[in-house]
Design brief:
The chain is α/β, with parallel strands linked by helices and 422 residues long. The protein folds into 2 domains: 3-209, Rossmann fold; 220-405, P-loop containing nucleotide triphosphate hydrolases (Rossmann fold), CATH 3.40.50.300. Helices cover 38% and strands 14% of the residues. The protein is built from 16 helices and 13 strands. The protein has helices at 10-19, 26-36, 51-65, 85-98, 116-124, 133-141, 158-163, 167-176, 192-201, 232-240, 255-267, 281-292, 303-306, 326-333, 354-364, 392-400; strands spanning 41-44, 78-81, 106-109, 128-131, 152-155, 182-187, 206-209, 220-226, 248-251, 272-275, 298-301, 316-319, 343-349. Strands 3-4-2-5-6-1-7 form a 7-stranded parallel sheet, with helices on both faces. The protein is elongated and about 70 Å long. The protein starts with 9 loop residues before the first helix and ends in a 22-residue tail after the last helix. The structure holds adenosine monophosphate (AMP).
């Protein structure tokens, strides 16, 4: 599935390609066509599923296609209300990114800062306004914002909005919106109070739902290798000695990391290619095709580059470096164990990454079994870093203090999960 098949227009397709998006996420596949048909949508999805693009892309498209029917000064035609400043900024950034080849303008308003630059932006005219509820009501009361021309309304993270005590603000806003409009309602959970609120906003909505990002499929066998950073290349090569491992997607955090892993493997005669944002689109596509055709065994990818990768029967995912965002772990390992096939996900965890592992285990609500007795096992007596997520400076220091590799290493062991059928 590609974005074009969802009916997305060229200027937006171009921006998505520049963002490195190749495949729409499930929420995008389910939502975009309905929104383009001007239907209301009730979406059960959380952050991390790609829900921002699921509404931003069709809103940009509908406004872009109708741009010639709007005369005079730009009016706010789409309003997105979200509970926090961080989310508001992220959403506005997404509109900037996906709409960069359209003429649609947006701005963002939130409380806790001076309103001056926000009101100036609105005075200059915007098509899309992203807002937190309190500041929005405030600027409406002061006469800076009018909702009279809103055609597309999004209530984002509705359950969080309620938890944060914004229900009255939301109800006030609803009174100010034109009755004739298209509405979208997103919430990670749907308790009765939320459903009642949704019922008061939406008209005959299409319901879409995607699995929460915290769930990992039961068909994926997961485990962790504690290993010194310096020993990771050797551990990877050792694991790949097992010829039963035919297709492996290896994740690194950085583009340079991906290139380094690829070089190490190539030196050992293991066919591997890297895909990341520094590679041209056709080079990435070629690597992916070679991987799908099993001409190369190992594809090394960064998270951004790997977003759209969809390889049937992918046997193994190896987290060569753990992600600092726990949801990313779930996305990564979700590449294997699809459609009822078995899959295996190994994670390499060095001293600095123990805090990341802790966050991941908390999110997925399970302890990953530890692969014991491998030749590069890290000294387990090393304490875990105190901070939940190590700061850059701490990581740097930890890197220098890193222990040298375990001298008692044996080669050619077989990992427990190796040989799982795909
Ligand atoms: P969200 O759930 O909207 O917070 O999005 C989560 C992350 O996924 C953001 O960093 C987006 O930039 C990214 N993203 C959204 N859709 C796609 C896609 N189709 N392909 C790749 N990345 C995406």
């Amino acid at each position: 599935m590609i974005f074009k098949e969802l009916g997305v227009i060229d200027p937006i397709l171009k921006a998505l390609e520049e963002e490195g998006y190749t495949t729409p996420t499930p929420i995008q596949q389910q939502t975009i066509p309905h929104l383009l048909q001007k239907k209301d949508v009730l979406g059960c999805a959380q952050t991390g599923t790609g829900k921002t693009a699921a509404f931003a892309i069709p809103i940009l498209q509908l406004l872009h296609e109708n741009r010639n029917s709007y005369a005079g000064k730009r009016q706010i035609k789409s309003l997105i209300v979200t509970p926090t400043r961080e989310l508001a900024i992220q959403i506005a950034d997404s509109f900037d990114a996906y709409g960069r080849h359209t003429s649609i303008r947006n701005t963002v308003i939130f409380g806790g800062v001076s309103q001056h630059s926000q009101t100036n932006a609105i005075k200059n005219g915007v098509d899309v306004l992203v807002a937190t509820p309190g500041r929005l009501l405030d600027l409406i009361a002061q006469g800076f914002v009018s909702l009279a021309h809103v055609e597309l309304f999004v209530l984002d993270e509705a359950d969080r909005m309620l938890d944060m005590g914004f229900i009255h603000d939301v109800k006030k806003l609803l009174q100010l919106l034109p009755k004739q409009r298209q509405s979208l309602f997103f919430s990670a959970t749907m308790p009765p109070q939320i459903l009642t609120l949704a019922g008061s906003i939406l008209t005959d909505p299409v319901k879409v739902e995607v699995a929460p990002v915290s769930s990992t499929a039961d068909t994926i066998q997961q485990s962790v290798y504690f290993v010194d950073k310096a020993d990771k290349p050797k551990l990877l090569v050792d694991i790949l000695e097992n010829k039963e491992i035919e297709t492996v997607l290896v994740f690194t955090r950085t583009k340079h990391g991906a290139d380094r892993v690829c070089k190490t493997l190539s030196k050992k005669g293991i066919k591997a290619e890297a895909i990341h944002g520094n590679k041209a689109q056709n080079a990435r596509q070629r690597a992916l095709t070679n991987f799908k055709n099993k001409e190369i065994r190992v594809l090394v990818a960064t998270d951004i580059a790997a977003r759209g990768i969809d390889v049937d029967e992918l046997q193994y995912v190896i987290n060569y470096e753990l992600p600092n965002i726990p949801e990313t772990y779930v996305h990564r390992i979700g590449r294997t164990g699809r459609a009822g096939n078995n899959g295996t996900a190994f994670s390499f965890c060095d001293q600095e990454e123990k805090a990341y592992l802790k966050d991941i285990q908390k999110l997925i609500n399970k302890q990953l079994p530890v692969e014991e007795g491998h030749p590069y096992a890290m000294d387990p007596s090393m304490p875990m870093p105190k901070a939940n997520t190590p700061k850059k400076a701490e990581q740097h220091k930890a890197g220098f203090a890193e222990k040298k590799s375990n001298p008692n290493k044996k080669r050619f062991f077989r990992p427990k999960g190796a040989g799982a059928k795909s």
